[in-house]
Specification:
Helix content is 43%, strand content 14%. It has helices at 20-28, 42-51, 78-84, 94-100, 104-116, 129-133, 137-149, 177-195, 197-201, 213-220, 237-248; strands spanning 5-9, 35-39, 58-61, 88-91, 120-125, 160-163, 205-208, 227-230. Bound molecules: 2-phosphoglycolic acid.
């Protein structure tokens, strides 16, 4: 069985003053039955790691550079994120693909860099609304998965895959439960075809895109949904905790 994961993605939100949300989160979940992660702006990782020391909360990042070091002004290497305390990194988020022109080959290179630095990768895939309307959802997701994993003969250690339909992110819209189930079944089959059934069975598949307390339980009831990648509703402990509770009782 895959681990069940509730992962927050603060995106470009938060300053050190907001880290009291971490204290609230760890106090609310002293011994969680699911894995809890918060992927933070890089500026907050070190202090958040210190605050979460000894607690069941993993601190993560939202991106890394594909190279281990060098002349890349403004970028951050995977090993630097790990040095700051990150244990996890989101890769290939649609906002990176849109804002920074990241393609599947670059996402694959970043995946390699993350693995080399010992970071657990959360690989994001998802279709645009135009792709869904054109009936190309599975084709697009298959391309993204294949592109990122092309150079991996064996599965990246600790791989987590997040299905995030671009049109559901931050919009309040979510796919139907059948649509979520169709993509998650497809992801499991694709990973099985690439790495075998035993390996694929252990890969946590997260759904992301407008997950909130009101819809979390029904989403977690969909087969092959092992957790969520949560944006807006991860910023406040009072929103994130009910999502964690819904996953725990799913
Ligand atoms: P959202 O973002 O929950 O605010 O829709 C999800 C994500 O982009 O990871």
């Amino acid at each position: 069985m895959p681990a069940r994961i509730a992962a927050g993605n603060w995106k470009m939100n938060g300053t050190r003053a907001d880290l009291d949300q971490i204290d609230a989160l760890t106090a609310a979940h002293p011994a969680p039955a699911v894995e809890i992660m918060l992927c933070l702006p890089a500026t907050l990782i070190a202090e958040a790691t210190a605050r979460a020391a000894g607690q069941a909360l993993r601190i993560g990042a939202q991106d890394c550079h594909a190279q281990p070091a060098g002349a890349h002004t403004g970028d951050i290497a995977a090993a630097q994120l790990a040095d700051a305390g990150a244990q996890v990194v989101i890769l290939g988020h649609s906002e990176r693909r849109t804002d920074h022109g990241e393609d599947d080959a670059l996402v694959g290179a970043k995946l390699r860099a993350a693995c080399d630095a010992g970071l657990r990768p959360i690989l994001c895939v998802g279709e645009s609304l135009a792709e869904r309307d054109a009936g190309k959802t599975l084709e697009r997701i298959g391309t993204q998965l294949d592109g990122a994993l092309a150079d991996f003969d064996t599965m990246p250690a600790g791989l987590v895959v997040a299905y995030e339909p671009v049109w559901a992110i931050g919009t309040g819209r979510t796919p139907s439960l059948d649509q979520i189930g169709e993509v998650h079944d497809f992801l499991r089959k694709q990973i099985k075809a690439r790495y075998g059934g035993a390996t694929a069975a252990d890969v946590p598949l997260l759904y992301g895109g407008s997950v909130k307390p009101a819809n979390a339980a029904e989403i977690f009831g969909v087969p092959n949904v092992d957790g969520a990648l949560v944006g807006g509703a991860s910023l406040k402990e009072s929103d994130f905790s009910p999502i964690i509770a819904a996953l725990t009782s799913s």
